[in-house]
Amino acid sequence: MDLRLKDKVIFIAGASRGIGFGMTEGFLAEGAKVVMTGRGEASLDEAKAALKDKGYDAAAMLTIAGDMTDTGNLKEALIAGEKHLGPLHSVIANVGLGRSPLGYDVSDEDWEADFKQNFTGSVALAREAVRLFMARDEEARAGTNVIFISSIAGVNALGTPLPYATSKAAINQLARTMAKQVGRYGIRINAIAPGNIIFKDGEWEKRVEERPEDWTRWIKREVALRRFGTPDEIADAACWLASDRARFVTGEVLVVDGGQVR
């Protein structure tokens, strides 16, 4: 199926590793151009070099380092992306980390830090993206969209830290509510809720290396497809949602978890 993404410009926060890197490659494979953002300039340069080694055109990639939870930084990044690659078609809020412990006894500082990272940054990016889209006329903003990367921790209670799970649930509701508000202008808002995604130097790889039998047993018990997911499988979902093939899909939280959520 041709997703008709050739030369479309996609902005991806957190593009240097894991799911963000997988989505970057997925969109490049579809012929899109990608604005790659992240906190570290060195990691972005490494990611771009790795993609060039795979045969992707360096001219189709723009790297911008900065804190994407900072409104000033992300505004500058959005503007730079349009200046260098062209009008943005899709903006993907792929931000999410957690520092808080398990259990109910979580400090105010940990709640605030995790919410800023997992929720507030995504809110700001989506708001500034929509402002950018709304500055165009109706024809020019047709097909524009925002995709949040959420988590199944925001869909089901899975025993994850409270701030992480709560912030991801908030992202899901943000996508649904914002979609209602901007749909009349032709802008789509959706979220993807990944399950357990394994990749190099990621948290799941570390856990499996430490206790391979335990985690293999757990994944086979909890996940219908009896395996971990991979970044390219999230990328496939993102490419479809960003494309005009999903032009009648908005306000959705697309669970991509191999059948874990019940």
Summarize the topology:
Blueprint: E1 9-13, H1 18-29, E2 33-38, H2 41-53, E3 61-65, H3 71-85, E4 88-93, H4 108-134, H5 138-141, E5 145-149, H6 162-182, E6 188-194, H7 203-210, H8 212-222, H9 231-242, E7 253-256
Parallel strand pairs: 1-2, 1-4, 2-3, 4-5, 5-6, 6-7
Helix pairs in contact: 1-9, 3-4, 4-6, 7-8
Q: What can you tell me about this protein's structure?
A:
This protein has 9 helices and 7 strands. The protein has a 7-stranded parallel sheet, with helices on both faces. The protein has one domain: NAD(P)-binding Rossmann-like Domain (Rossmann fold). It is α/β, with parallel strands linked by helices and 262 residues long. The two termini are 30 Å apart.
- What is the 3D form? globular
User: What Rg is obtained from the alpha carbons, in whole angstroms?
Assistant: 18 Å
- Classified in CATH, the superfamily is NAD(P)-binding Rossmann-like Domain
CATH architecture: 3-Layer(aba) Sandwich
Q: What is the count of structural domains?
A: 1
Order of helices and strands: EHEHEHEHHEHEHHHE
Number of E-state strands: 7
The main pleated sheet reads as: 7 strands, parallel
Instruction: Tell me the strand percentage band.
Output: 5-15%
Structural class: alpha/beta
For the largest sheet, list the strands in their spatial order.
3-2-1-4-5-6-7
Distance between the termini: 30 Å
Q: Helical amount among residues, as a percent range?
A: 40-55%
Helix run count: 9
Averaging pLDDT over every residue, what do you get? 93
Contiguous uncertain segments of 5+ residues: none
CATH topology: Rossmann fold
Assign the CATH class.
Answer: Alpha Beta
